[in-house]
Amino acid sequence: MGRPKKENGMSATDYKREFNEKAYDRINGYVKQGKKSRYKAAADAMGCSLNRFMEQAMDKLAAEVLGEEMTEE
């Protein structure tokens, strides 16, 4: 039977996938076992997602390395 299609012939999942491909870059990374739970705990303590926590950490380090001033997004 499959998933229902919208009028334009695109399922909700297909729509989200297409939107994400246009709006975001994907970064895949690996960390040593045990570090993910540490990072997740820190993200929870900050009240944000693990993804947002990693993005903020990378932004901060990139600005430091590149000699830039941090900006809020």
Short key terms for the protein model shown above:
73 residues, 3 helices, mainly alpha, 56% helix, single chain
Helix content: 55-70%
Counting helices, strands and paired strands, the structural category is mainly alpha
Q: Could you give the distance between the termini?
A: 43 Å
Output the helix-strand order.
Answer: HHH
Strand content bin: under 5%
Q: What does this 3D model show about the protein?
A:
This protein has 73 residues and is mainly alpha-helical. The chain has a domain at 29-73. Helix content is 56%, strand content 0%. α2 crosses α3 (50-66). The chain starts with 11 loop residues before the first helix and ends in a 7-residue tail after the last helix.
Produce a short descriptive summary.
By secondary structure, the chain is mainly alpha-helical. Helices cover 56% and strands 0% of the residues.
List the helices and strands and how they pair.
Elements lengths: L11 H12 L11 H12 L3 H17 L7
Helix pairs in contact: 2-3
